[in-house]
Amino acid sequence: MDLNEDWSPSDDEIHGGENDVNIRGHSFDLNQLPVEEAGANVHNASGNQHINDSATNQEEQRTNAQATNQGPTHHRHQQVRLNSEDKFNVLIFLLKYHEGDYIKRGAIKAAMEHFNLKRKCVSSVWNEAKKQKQALGKYKPCTNYHLAGRKRITVPVGDITKLGIGERSCIRDVATNLNISKSTVGRMIKRGDIKAHTNAIKPPLTEANKLARLKWILGLIMGSSPWKMSRYFPMYDFVHIDEKWFKLTKKSHRYYIAKNEKGVHRTGSANSHGPKFKFTAACAKPRYNDQGECYFDGRIGIFPFTTQEAAKRKSKNREKGTLISKPIAKVTKEVTRRMLIDQIVPAIKAKWPNDGTSRTIYIQQDNARAHITQDDPEWQEVHMQDGFSFILVQQPPNSPDLNILDLGFFKSIQSLQEKKWPQMLMTYLSM
To answer: Given this model, what pLDDT does residue 423 score?
Structure first.
């Protein structure tokens, strides 16, 4: 007999002595070990010691639980909160056992086992449904589940907009000025109540600049009349060029090191006097065939403003007389002219695809003083050669967004260069 299942004595079942209890016709002495029907404590004929079968059974159960990697089973209902959908599912289950105004015997217990709920919880769903049916004629499984828990801290939008730009530059400043915690500000960001914003300085546009931008855009629309101008030129015959200063290294680098690793010791002059070099980049629009395969990536090249000089003395890095590259101190109109004629134009001719398209190429550049124009005498002598016709065009002033290099190409190159950590100019040029 299992006492854990049958131990439910009532007042009329308890009788006998102080320690004798009669349950369903069986008598037990609580001061002694329980004796099972088959004989838990058995004394053999040879006088051996008693064997505690209850302890043996417990040991076997513990061994079986360890073998199956399962702990003891506890038939306890966890405290749960039912939302509207859960209540509706419980009611649908109970309606299967519905007869008139009552449900069949055992329906509550079946719902308890099916949904792992307590009897009180299942009964409250059924009683609530009966009351609503008598009052309204239909069941509304409303719940206050969404009202449970700590109430959300709300901050009026006006309190945030009243703060100055400098008073909300970080989460700590926002939390301090709004008199709330930083975790509350973090939850507001996660919900989308507030968001981070980066404010960049835009180039100043005068009325003349705006008019020039409008004329530039209208000049790129295909069509001979206003009612036919509905498409832009594909700009496959445009090459964008621009200059960019690259620093050999930046003042501060952030990287991850091992637990016992030491950071790299770097020395150098002031950040404003560090080594930097100027490059000219040229790129065009990529081209794809009918299968979607790229047969021209548009990358013409990157050309540094450097000169070759012989080393005047021997060092650990080179021998005397070795040609070394040095940056040009000042980029003038003559330097850009030679760069354009001697390097950029030959690179375009070598890499331009021969797919039968037009060979009239527009080289777009900004309005820097060192740039030459289409009317330059030396340029007029070389702008038409080998079937190519090169035309220099100036983009509208104060409009870096009209050049793909300024839009993001230079930023990507700078990021890749910082990952390589070049220590010398020759290493920088070979990247």
So the answer is: 56
Evaluate whether 399 touches 217 at the Cβ level (below 8 Å): no
Q: What is the pLDDT of residues 127-181, one digit of tens each?
A: 888 887 777 666 666 666 667 778 888 899 899 999 998 899 999 999 999 999 9
* Delimiting residues of CATH 3.30.420 domain(s) in the chain: 212-254+273-429
> For residue range 189-207, what is the model confidence (pLDDT) as tens digits?
999 999 999 888 887 889 9
**Element holding 60 (H helix, E strand):** helix 53-67
Closest CA to 413 of 302, 320, 316: 302
Cα dihedral across residues 85, 89, 92, 98: positive or negative: negative
Instruction: Determine the topology of domain 212-254+273-429 in CATH.
Output: Nucleotidyltransferase; domain 5 (3.30.420)
Record the tokens describing residue 374, joined without a space: 């289409």
pLDDT of the residue at 260 = 87
Most confident among 77-86, 106-115, 174-183 (mean pLDDT): 174-183
Distances from the Cα of 273 to the Cα of 244, 251, 269, 276, angstroms: 17, 11, 6, 9
- H or E element at residue 250: none
Question: What is the phi/psi pair of residue 256, to 5°?
Answer: -105, 140
Neighbours of 100 (CB within 10 A): 5
Could you give the CA distance from residue 245 to residue 369 in angstroms, rounded to a whole number?
16
Residue 309 near residue 318, CB atoms below 8 Å: no
Measure Cα distances from 288 to 221, 285, 353, 354, 409 in Å. Answer: 22, 10, 11, 13, 20
CA nearest to 239, candidates 352, 82, 126 = 352
What tens digit of pLDDT does each residue of 258-273 get?
Answer: 988 888 887 776 656 6
